[in-house]
Design goal:
324 residues, alpha+beta, Nucleotidyltransferase, domain 5, 2 domains, 5-stranded mixed β-sheet, 14 strands, 32% helix
Amino acid sequence: MENAIDIFAPRFTDEDKAREHLEAIHWPDGPTCPHCGSLNAKRLPPQKRKPTKAHPGGTVRKGVVQCNDCRQQYTVTVGTVFERSKVPLNKWLLVNHLLCSSKKGMSAHQIARMIGVSYKTAWFMMHRIREAMKDADQEPLGGYGVTVEADETYVGGKDKNRHAKDRKGSGFGIHVKMPVVSLVERGGRVRSQHMARVTGPNLRHALVTNADRGSWLMTDDHNGYKAVGKEYTGHGVVKHSLGEYVRKGVFHTNTVESYFAILKRGIIGVYHSVSEAHLNRYLGEFDFRYNTRKLNDFERSTEALKGARGKRLTYRRTGETSYA
């Protein structure tokens, strides 16, 4: 597999090389039928498509494989977020690389200008890639001997800065911001989620479903953590309300606060505005980059491409995305 990590690598400029790169990742043992799972297949010569208004001379479909068991034809993009896309595959791989290698993300407007597509196309491509980044491993974080820090933050602009028609309240701001709760293993992974309201029951549900009760829980002095903290091996508290941020070098939530710093710089400086409907996808993007921080850009991009299978999205007329 070609290992260049710069944007001039052949897989970013040549669609055939992009397809070969994706095949090497998804089919290391040869073509696998997405319909029946069979490895018994044969490659077909390039298939000529029928002429259309957009392409009077027709187009050529390369990389077609036919399953010898179920007789279905397919390519490596079938069953992935790239399926049925009219955007060349090499552009998909370039956008994936740019999103994986940019620490604070990259805006859809920037992507649209760089690869020569509309903003709407770039926006949807990026949300597909964010779906590919989504962590498929839902095993609880932490465990015995592991410290898990938990904290909440708020993202979104103040209500008083919104256009008059978009204001939801009297203008004090904090109630229209969107709460985000993150759990971080010290030296390990992070998992974030949008929470409608930060309450004791909601915090407990987020913690017990995402963090092993054998962990040491580390939080600030928010009242919502008091009850659930008793369910863990230990519960350390730092009193932010009294100006305490580190005690004995062990009791702190600096790890999760550092993650929030990256998240907020990305939201404020790159994306500027994130809707509540799609906030969890953006969180998944920042979680993915944090969880793969020890990998280089090539390895991180490969991990995202591996996650592209089984997550195909379609676009509705309403502008909403849905699973096919």
